[in-house]
Here is the input.
Amino acid sequence: LISMMAEWCKPAGRVKGVLLDISGVLYDSGEGGGVPIPGSTEAVKRIKEANLKVRFCTNETQATRETFVAKLQSLGFDIALGEVFAPAPAACQILKERGLRPHLLVHDDLLPEFSQVDQSNPNCVVLGDAAGNFSYKNLNEAFRVLIGLEKPILLSLGRGRYYKETDGMKLDVGVYMKALEYACDIEAEVVGKPAKMFFLSALSDMDLEPDQVIMIGDDIVNDVGGAQQCGMKAVQVRTGKYRPCDEQHRTVKADGYVDNLAQAVRILLEHLH
Here is the structure.
């Protein structure tokens, strides 16, 4: 079984870096900041001690990157702000480059990320995981902005269907993205996983080629499928939102399945040495 599972770290000499999803891989979010998944704080430390480059690719949009990283550090993770790639900073860059002024439908705690962005007279909508802010009133307001534009532009911070918190599964931003797409007969632009640009920006920051990096995530489509489309090998952990049916997914087959991050790191390091 181990030899079957370990195909994903061959040729071992090529692997120079690891991309990690955060929620469902490092920890489960929830009340009181969430809880680390057993063995994951140690696993991150082991990756760094092995002199592998590591970046964290998250679709987290319920907090600013600073707040999110501080929370993970308080949970015991060796993680730095510059190692974390999140959709909001990437979206701000796109807005500035294209002269877009967003109507924001996002979580209150994410608003500081957009403090430097002109939001007057909006010519696009930015949608994040707004959680409790996804009311009929707020969705309808976003719809009205879009439908009133000659060329409606909808930027969605990720396109996940659901994620897991400590008290169970939660609907994610993709569900509301689809609703606005359907209402306006448009296609959203996704910023974050599984968008190719998002993965490539993390790879370029590591200064590595796709075949030198392994992605480890709990989302078969957005983590595994997204990384594979960029030429990376990708492994799914059986934690977070993982469900057994993921291993029989119609379109995406992970290069390996592991019980958790700790096991993935153990297998990878055994192959490197």
About this structure: The first strand starts at residue 17 and ends at 20. The mean pLDDT is 96. The radius of gyration is 19 Å. Residues 8 and 147 are 46 Å apart (CA to CA).
